[in-house]
Design a protein that fits this description.
390 residues; mainly alpha; two-stranded antiparallel sheet; 11 helices; 2 strands; elongated
């Protein structure tokens, strides 16, 4: 039996909530309260920050190895800050997130009952979220397993003692065989937990954002319904006016939905891109110096997640343009009355000023922004590398 789009969407949300619940951050639950899991996750994050701080102190004062400082800054200023921002973003705006999710459920349940065209676009929205869910799961698994595996293989081939990341734990000496083994195991566990937490955060953020594109398809279906009324019942102006009002109300709902998503995800996206930029500069620099074998995995993860968000931002921009194009080309203007044309024209003016998501207050979230950041990462890394080489 074929599942309805709303059922498929609820199943994905159930998985997202399960992951968020394990991290103590299932803010989609109306009865959510800070619990023991929340405290434990925050404790792990703070403990990891302290380990990074200890590593920086130890590397400068004892070992005199500044490359370990860069690795510690990469993980602390990159991954840990990113995970912390996801968690705080959820915990400080739970009501808005719940309203957005409930509104998405209503959107699916209301429109899937109309006809197959509506269900087609709703299924496309679920398919997009499913693909992103699988991509995020794959690369977070690669992050959690790959960094440890690459380091173990590297040590076996070259018979060295290189840690997964240059972060030392207080009271454990990694120079001894036992201390090295314990440090490796603990680092593997912390990276696995961190990868799972980042996955839960990404899915919680993307669940409602990805549904912005679904509005555009439903909007086209509503315009089709309006055209059918204009052709089949040209004298029934009451019915056509009612259909047009429904279209305008739907567009207002879309504007409200995208604006609230912008507000809720603003700091999460900004911090994610800032930490990704910082982490990638540090990682590529360490790779060029040949001091971090597992850095290749971390670099692949950061680049992938950056472009996942950039791709979603570009799709939202395309959806915004699609509203304008649909109004121009998808409506039988010559069949509309003067009042109806004026109403539709006003909606088009508003549609032309719709903003998408952004990185910070000014930079649009798009693939072009991702490419510009990639160029900046390359330039910064080469500048540092040339400075060290001189």
């Amino acid at each position: 039996m074929t599942k309805e789009p709303s059922q498929r969407f609820r199943e994905i949300v159930r998985v997202t909530r399960f992951c968020a619940n394990l991290c103590g951050s299932d803010v989609f639950d109306p009865n959510y309260r800070i619990n023991i899991r929340t405290v434990l996750v925050l404790g792990v994050i703070l403990f990891s920050f302290s380990c990074c701080g200890y590593c920086i102190h130890y590397s400068i004062t004892v070992k005199g190895d500044w490359t370990l400082v860069i690795q510690a800054l990469c993980m602390g200023g990159g991954t840990l800050v990113q995970g912390f921002s996801h968690m705080m973003g959820f915990m400080f705006r739970p009501a808005e997130l719940r309203v957005l999710l409930e509104e998405t459920h209503t959107l699916y349940e209301r429109h899937e009952k109309i006809d197959s065209d509506y269900r087609l676009y709703l299924n496309r929205g679920v398919d997009l979220l499913t693909r992103l869910m699988k991509i995020c799961a794959f690369f977070n698994t690669i992050l959690a397993v790959g960094m440890s595996l690459v380091t173990v293989i590297y040590n076996a081939i070259y018979e060295t003692r290189v840690l997964i990341v240059g972060i030392y734990l207080d009271a454990i000496d990694p120079e001894t065989e036992r201390g090295f083994l314990i440090t490796m195991i603990l680092q593997s566990c912390f990276i696995a937990v961190g990868g799972f937490g980042l996955y839960a955060g990404d899915m919680g953020t993307l669940t409602t954002i990805t549904q912005i594109m679904t509005f555009k398809g439903l909007f086209c279906c509503k315009l089709r319904d309006l055209n059918e009324i204009l052709l089949d019942e040209p004298d029934n102006k009451t019915k056509s006016l009612e259909a047009l009002r429904d279209i305008i109300q739907f567009h207002q709902q879309y504007l409200s939905f995208i604006e609230r998503n912008r507000s809720v995800s603003f700091w999460t996206i900004f911090v994610k891109f800032l930490t990704n930029f910082f982490g990638l500069v540090c990682t590529v620099f360490c790779i060029l110096l040949g001091v971090w074998p597992a850095g290749y995995i971390y670099m692949a993860y950061c680049f992938t997640m950056m472009y996942v968000y950039c791709g979603v931002g570009t799709m939202i921009d395309i959806a915004n343009d699609g509203f304008i194009e649909a109004c121009y080309n998808g409506v039988l203007w010559y069949e509309l009355s003067a009042l109806e044309r004026k109403m539709l024209h006003t909606m088009m003016i508003i549609a032309q000023n719709t903003k998408g998501l952004s990185v910070g207050p000014f930079v649009p979230l798009s693939v072009n922004t991702g490419l510009q950041m990639t160029k900046m990462i390359y330039s910064m890394t080469m500048m540092l590398f040339n400075f060290v080489s001189q």
